[in-house]
Amino acid sequence: MTAVKQMSNFDVNKIREDFPVLTQTVNGKPLVYLDNAASSQVSNLVIERGSKYLAEEHSNVHRGVHYLSQLATNEYEKARENVRKFINAKESKECIFVRGCTEGINLVANSYGRKFINEGDEIIISAMEHHSNIVPWQMIAEERGAKIRVIPINENGELVLDEYENLLNERTKIVAVAHVSNSLGTVNPIKEMIATAHKFGVPVCIDGAQAVPHLRVDVQDLDADFYAFSGHKMFAPTGSGVIYGKKEWLDKMPPYQGGGSMIRVVTFEKTTYAGLPEKFEAGTPAIASQIGLGAAIDYLNSIDLDAAFAYEHELLEYATEKLSNIEGVKIIGTAKEKASVLSFTIENVHPHDIGTILDQQGIAVRAGHHCAQPVMKFFDVPATARASFAFYNTKEEVDKLAEAVQKVIEVFA
């Protein structure tokens, strides 16, 4: 792999000024934050927007005629419209606010599953899925008497697409697959996979948690039926997220939860439900978090996002080259198309020890199975260390990572 130069039209140092957490020290060392696949950091814009809401606008939404309630409702719905534009949904009511990607997938698994999945039906997932795109489907399959079918992966961490097409048949009721693998960084050919499923009349639910912060996502261009993502991985507060669904599907699906806000009329004999998106948003939502998600999108729209994504990809290539040149280091996941994630092992060193020593150097990585135990089993490793990048990371930080990995090897030599 050839050396990669930093893009001249992307000023990462200016970007870093927008993220106050990056200025602190950890264990006496400047923080090198490389755990973005778990949670990314938030900008001053998001922090200030959240503070303004709590200080000046805090009230419940959709249920008050007074000024503050109307104000909070307007800001909450502005955030939904921000989401719609960002992913190019046709209508804002197709964007259901949830606490994160996990809740979004659970919503689809339960609501779609109980309506459309029956005994003998099949659900297709892939061998690289996060647990949040495995367990909900297992639960609904067990409840409904359906069967889980699994798309295999190869040694590079890529889906075997020929096998995928062979799995589709008249019993298939839904395909659930990640856009980008959280443990391998593999970018799956989602548009092609959706088109293949649609030939069989099968809808597709996409786990987009690792894609939306790193790629341009256009749900209409993808022709996605459902697309879930979390705010906290795209520079927004925790407790924010979205499940996009085509209106034609959402209209057919029953509510996921019951309670306030999702009803039209309640009697002891019968309840009638509200329309979209309220039908799927029972109770008081995470108002501040979702307004923060809207602010995070404002921030992303304020920068040259295409340049940021390109810079981030070059950073990943640079890091891959640096670590690949260290004897004893093995990269887990070598797909041709990757984003953000660099998982690795060091010979005769447990990943938890890697993570501990890196932390002593001020470097934050994730060590473990990354909620993807089937992936670890496939590659015959107990866990990996995972460095995951955002556009505020630098080549200098990658160099520090490489130096710290050398130190790990020296400690265990």
Keywords, separated by commas or semicolons:
413 residues, 14 helices, seven-stranded mixed β-sheet, 17 strands, globular, Aspartate Aminotransferase, domain 2, single chain, disordered N terminus, four-stranded antiparallel β-sheet, Aspartate Aminotransferase, domain 1, alpha/beta, 2 domains
Question: Summed up, what is this model?
Answer:
The chain is globular.
How much beta, percentage-wise?
15-25%
Average pLDDT reading: 96
Please tally the helical runs, counting DSSP H or I stretches of 4 or more residues: 14
Poorly predicted ranges (pLDDT <50, ≥5 residues)? 1-8
Task: Work out the number of β strands.
Answer: 17
- Helix-strand makeup class: alpha/beta
Percent of residues in helices comes to: 25-40%
The domain count comes to: 2
Q: Please state the overall shape, judged from the principal axes of the Cα atoms.
A: globular
Biggest pleated-sheet summary:
7 strands, mixed
- End-to-end Cα distance: 27 Å
CATH C-level label of the largest domain: Alpha Beta
The CATH topology of the largest domain is given as Aspartate Aminotransferase, domain 2
